[in-house]
Amino acid sequence: MDLIIVLGAILLLVVLIGVFKINAFLSFLFVSVTAGLCLGVPLDKITQSVEKGIGDILGSNVVIIIAGAMLGKLIADTGAAQQVATSIVSKTGIKKVHWGVALVGFIVGIPLFYNTGFVLLVPLIFSMVYQYRLPAVATGISMLAALSVAHGFLPPHPSPAALVSQFHADLGKTLLYGIVVAVPAIVLAGPVFSRALLKIPAAPLEAFRPQAIAKENLPGTFSSFFVALLPVGLFALMTLLPFVLHDKYASLISFLAQPSIVMLAALIAGTWILGLKKGRNMQRVMLMYSDAVKEVAMILLIIGGAGGLKQVLTDSGVSDQIAGLLQQTDLSPLFLGWLSAAIIRAAVGSATVAGFTAAGIIAPLIGQTHTDPNLMVLSIGAGSLMFSHVNDGGFWMFKEYFNVSIKDTLRSWSIMEIIVSVVGLIGVLILNNFIH
Length: 436
Prior knowledge:
- This protein is mainly α and 436 residues long.
- 77% of the residues lie in helices and 0% in strands.
- The longest helix is centred in the last third of the chain and has 35 residues, at 282-316.
- Belongs to the GntP permease family.
């Protein structure tokens, strides 16, 4: 009976978000309370469970996500992202432009949230399309595949960062594993798949042509790359330091390796290098950061709402029941995590909602099956990208920006997301064999 209630709760969440278009945070709250009542959680404990779940998941993620948003906003508004893009494409040349824009999408996509990266980089793609008469969809897909992979796989993006916390994974290892899995997914879904899209007709709208920053006002190439890649470099460094330094430095390394400390250090460095050093006063930089917080406020609320539902399921004991049943199947826990997220993604349309909802179901299974939590983050992340279609805002952003038909959006954008998801799962399963 309890399992039927959980399935009903997930279905209710899908209906509230997908059919009635109710805000995802409010939907999570309503479903959390409803599930608690139906699962027999004492009345005086339901709100305590919801509030504890919200507090626990936000407490360990607010700094990471907010600092990541601020750094991404700084990189975008100062022209560092534009500098990275133009530098890479100028090196690869037009004949290899698909590889160049994929690399741009990956590097810029690490610190930038997906929507920000899309709005910032797609106009740069259009400028090349107009100037060199390139196929718009084929060129754009290569970059968007990389942006999508970074969004689903790599901290400090909200979903993977929050899942790292929820599964008690190691953020540095998750990032390194994520890069290993991300590369083949980007290559196959981007430059390779784009060859099949060369003849799709597209007429990018003039309104989306870029208002580029003058070249003389852009930050230097080294500064742009350095700040964009600094979080990755710091996480990698802190993961490797324990292997080369004496044990007496263990507590210091442990402190410096905390994700919030890493992101804070990256933000301080970026503030100086791209902000104050370039003549921008502190007030102007802080205004950028204030705007960044506004952009991710709803994401934080959705994360909190998902944490509330997860805690209700945990306190009711049903999570352990589900884990026990799943453990009896012959399917890999990593595959089950991917499948759960993929089904919810197809139903709801939100990668964030899909990832967090699946995590609440799968979390107890990790300890019982001794599954690597870092790989489970990536598996659910890959599943959360599966099959973007008409219920996903990203689907419509692509259609409208590139001015293509729904049919061509399905055969380009949607197939790209499927490839990213499936290749990501395969990469996780292969990596699991090498690690264990």
